[in-house]
TrEMBL record:
The lineage of its organism: Bacteria, Pseudomonadati, Bacteroidota, Flavobacteriia, Flavobacteriales. One of its GO terms (cellular component) is cytoplasm. Residues 111-178 form the Transglutaminase-like domain. Keywords: Signal. PANTHER family: CYTOKINESIS PROTEIN 3 (PTHR46333). Residues 1-21 form the signal peptide. This is Transglutaminase.
Amino acid sequence: MPQKKISFLFLLLHIISFNFAFSQKISEVDKIVAKYPKSFNTTEKLAERIEKDFDSDAERARAIYAWIAFNIKYDYNAFLNPPRVQGFSYSSEAEKQRKIKQLNDNLIQKAFKSQKAVCEGFTALYQNLAEQVGLKCEIIRGDSKTRLADIGRKNTSSNHAWNMVLVDKKWRLIDVTWGQGYYDSNKGRMVNDYDPIYFDTDPDYFFAKHFPDSGTFLGNRLSKDDFLNGPLIYNKTIENDYKIKTPDSGIIQAKNGDKITIEIKNVSKANQVFYLNRKNQPVKVLNPKEKRGGLEFQILVDNNIGDYITIFIDTNSIVSFKII
């Protein structure tokens, strides 16, 4: 499922964050991969090129991410009109596994040759290339949180897929589907916009927008309620490490005259902070206070407040809450 970019005055989606030194190092990988051919005859040829150009597992993992995100486009038509599920019969477990492998190989080749895919194709191709260059990689299926309506949903659903790749004895979270671009509802089409923030995302941020079907990460139980009821965060939130300290729930119960206290870490008075009212008009936050390495401010609940409040910092959407 693609991210949606709904224009500056409403919503804007994307994400990621990683260590500054690490990001500086692997940004050079992007520059090299950007000069690669836009297509290769086989996945083996692409894997060989990556192995030749890069020595470390971290660089190879990033190179695969970058090439896929640069060159494979999200197939929005296939998302709207998914093909029928392919069934098959088998007489033994070995035959079953052969047929599953064949279906998966067909999915990988279709994504690679047509250069179009939905999340299943992106993740299968990433895993295939990762394993060819000697990396251990898994495909994870689960739920995604991208819309205001996702705040306070009752249940999760299996609507998305992403990867985990083992680099330097640590599992890295990767969503190359979201890294390649987004759907622009104003233009009615996909927009190619490479975003590195979905490579090696901090788990705290990643699982604010992803929830695996297993409900676990590396053996640890994740909170389904925190995922469903938490606030909706955006790319710049993670990119700039804007931690939402208060409130910790995405659902705020309030009546006219109440004041909602919001505290965001790594923001200062030098930043412009505002929210949108019911008419999507920007309202500047008044009298913010610097507190514990962040900014604390209040929003008065009145008739101008809509069903949701989205906080902006310097024109970038940062967090949304549902108002009850």
